[in-house]
Design brief:
This protein is an all-alpha fold. It has helices at about 10, 25-60, 70-100, 100-135, 140-160, 165-180, 185-195, 215-260. InterPro entries: Cyt_c_assembly (IPR002541), Cyt_c_biogenesis_CcmC (IPR003557), Cyt_c_biogenesis_CcsA/CcmC (IPR045062).
Length: about 260
């Protein structure tokens, strides 16, 4: 097939040989993801089927917070995914800008709506949790404000990559925004240490003495694993669908141009 007249991104999504495309070939990605995705989805459902009932029904209430502590099992994994997902977005943006990896562009494009949803859930559950604990739905606390900035960065990336008719230009602009926004991640992580905030400091990541009892810590970790697997499965499924859609469009464009030439 003659790909000389195709747009660069469309041409890159057609099957090609050579070592340069060994790890960026969409056909290879579709075959691999087709084998991985069912297992990843099944693992996510199985872990959540254990973790959510354990956390929301069978785990004990906190001695101080009572039943409101159950928001922890959603809020904390969503916070992890909001930050961890953005690290993935920044890495994918580097791959897209430096190595012009076409799958990195697509993965970042499909990652940002999922990351925005996780961050929105983090903010919503935090607000619900803050009302009985702090007596207010929202304060301009350093941690809350930096997570809100992170949410806007997710939304900005999702909008920017879709704002241009030239998909490659949109991908470049989105990648630049993602890398600039990565400076907010240390602020989110260390805000409770750098400033005097209402938000409690880290409880799970203290290796010497976690601040949570094991009856709460273990179901939280299981929920965190389950939500992480579900997050990865959703992003993989969205990226797989985007690759197939782009390949279909590229093939249609090539067929139309052959018909015009014939």
């Amino acid at each position: 097939m003659d790909t000389a007249n195709l747009p660069p991104l469309a041409a890159s999504l057609l099957p090609r040989g050579g070592s340069l495309h060994r790890f960026a070939n969409p056909g290879r990605f579709l075959r691999l993801s087709g084998r991985v995705l069912p297992w990843l989805t099944a693992a996510a459902l199985a872990v959540l089927a254990v973790g959510l009932p354990w956390a929301l029904i069978f785990s004990p209430p906190d001695w101080q917070q009572g039943e409101t502590v159950r928001l922890l099992y959603i809020h904390v994994p969503m916070a992890w995914l909001a930050m961890g997902g953005y690290v993935g977005l920044a890495i994918g943006s580097v791959l897209a800008l430096v190595w012009r990896h076409p799958l990195a562009d697509l993965a970042c494009r499909e990652l940002s709506p999922v990351g925005a949803a996780a961050t929105a859930l983090c903010l919503a559950t935090g607000s619900l949790w803050g009302k009985p604990m702090w007596g207010t739905w929202w304060v301009w606390d350093a941690r809350l404000t930096s997570v809100l900035v992170l949410f806007f960065l997710w939304l900005g990336h999702a909008a920017l990559v879709r704002a241009f008719d030239d998909t490659e230009r949109g991908a470049r602009m989105g990648a630049i925004l993602a890398l600039i926004g990565a400076v907010n991640l240390p602020v989110v992580k260390f805000s409770v240490d750098w400033w005097n905030t209402l938000h409690q400091p880290a409880s799970v990541t203290r290796i010497n003495a976690p601040g949570l009892h094991v009856d709460i810590l273990y179901p939280l970790l299981v929920c965190g694993l389950g939500f992480t697997l579900a997050f990865a499965a959703l992003v993989l499924a969205r990226t797989r669908a985007a690759v197939m859609e782009r390949r279909i469009r590229a093939l249609q464009l090539a067929a139309a141009r052959r018909a015009e030439a014939g």
